[in-house]
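Example S7 (structure tokens).
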């Protein structure tokens, strides 16, 4: 059975890091999986399901030890570890691989895709497949299965200390964002006063009025408790999200066919489980937040989309968008619109 070992404390983490060696999977029967999520979060539970299923379907020939809650460092550090073979699996946003392939940041383009269906079709495009291939070539890292399959979200919201009802309300808003240049540029174009802060500093920033707002998948609000100090939540559908399972290429290639099948099957099933968890957890969390006085709205994003589009158009004119990107976006928008109109 899978060993559910979660080492805590600085000494334990230091021991773990010092003991990691870049061995291929053929020299061991245990993979190391690092995550940035708490073990009891919806994503954390889905990661545990993945590990359990790998053990089950491989008849315990391959097991996975999980190190949750960024125990092994930041996302950037964990990507380096997976490239070097120190860990074998790291579930994370595909856009974070922009450290190797800068163009991949565009899979999280704010206010560009009108629905998850459009975005999923884009994720299946030759453009994205090309970026994934570059990740393999530059970092020795592969992506398990369909990178759009493991849902995160299920949608994004703006959480603020004051009401935000329209594009006009975004003007001058002190908005926390992650270190993501594309998102920073888009929200700046919308009029926000962007401040880049670590995720761990968000609660304190809102509480001390250093920032007015932050963006997040709605499913993560309860765990970070920001609605204790920011009582306004507006659905934005800023961009659609999933979790890509980065795997060390050498480790995966060294698996037997049966072990590869176990990993692939576990990924597909845990992705379906994650979608169920995200939706049910979100519904429950929203009920709790409403009872605590949180006000929910759905923004009319049409003016926001139009303003954001001016940035993409400017980059297109300047020739700074990734090759083939805009054509791929226009293709999926047209295809989804056509399918909807025909009732498919």
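Recovered sequence:
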């Amino acid at each position: 059975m899978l060993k559910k070992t979660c080492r805590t404390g600085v000494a334990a983490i230091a021991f773990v890091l010092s003991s990691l060696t870049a061995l291929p999977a053929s020299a061991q029967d245990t993979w190391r999986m690092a995550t940035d999520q708490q073990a009891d979060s919806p994503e954390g539970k889905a990661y545990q399901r993945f590990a359990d299923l790998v053990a089950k379907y491989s008849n315990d020939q391959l097991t996975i030890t999980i190190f949750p809650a960024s125990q092994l460092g930041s996302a950037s550090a964990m990507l380096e570890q997976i490239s070097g073979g120190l860990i074998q699996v790291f579930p994370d946003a595909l856009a974070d691989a922009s450290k190797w392939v800068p163009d991949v940041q565009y899979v999280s383009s704010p206010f560009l895709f009108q629905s998850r269906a459009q975005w999923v079709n884009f994720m299946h495009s030759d453009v994205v497949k090309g970026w994934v291939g570059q990740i393999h070539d530059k970092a020795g890292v592969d992506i398990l299965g369909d990178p759009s399959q493991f849902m995160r979200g299920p949608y994004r919201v703006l959480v603020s200390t004051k009401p935000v009802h329209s594009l006009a309300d975004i003007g001058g808003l002190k908005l926390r964002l992650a270190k993501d240049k594309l998102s920073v540029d888009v929200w700046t174009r919308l009029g926000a006063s962007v401040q880049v802060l670590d995720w761990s500093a968000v609660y304190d920033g809102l509480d001390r009025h250093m920032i007015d707002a932050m963006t997040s998948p709605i499913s993560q609000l309860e765990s970070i408790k920001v609605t204790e100090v920011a009582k306004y939540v507006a659905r934005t559908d800023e961009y659609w999200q999933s979790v890509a399972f980065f795997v060390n290429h050498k480790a995966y290639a060294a698996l037997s066919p049966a072990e590869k099948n176990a990993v692939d099957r576990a990924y597909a099933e845990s992705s379906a489980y994650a979608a169920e968890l995200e939706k049910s957890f979100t519904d429950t969390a929203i009920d709790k937040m409403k009872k605590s006085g949180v006000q929910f709205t759905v923004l009319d994003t049409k003016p926001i989309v139009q303003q954001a589009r001016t940035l993409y158009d400017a980059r297109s004119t300047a020739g700074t968008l990734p090759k083939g990107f805009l054509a791929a976006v226009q293709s999926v928008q047209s295809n989804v619109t056509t399918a909807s109109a025909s009732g498919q």
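Notes on this example. The CA atoms of residues 25 and 251 lie 5 Å apart.
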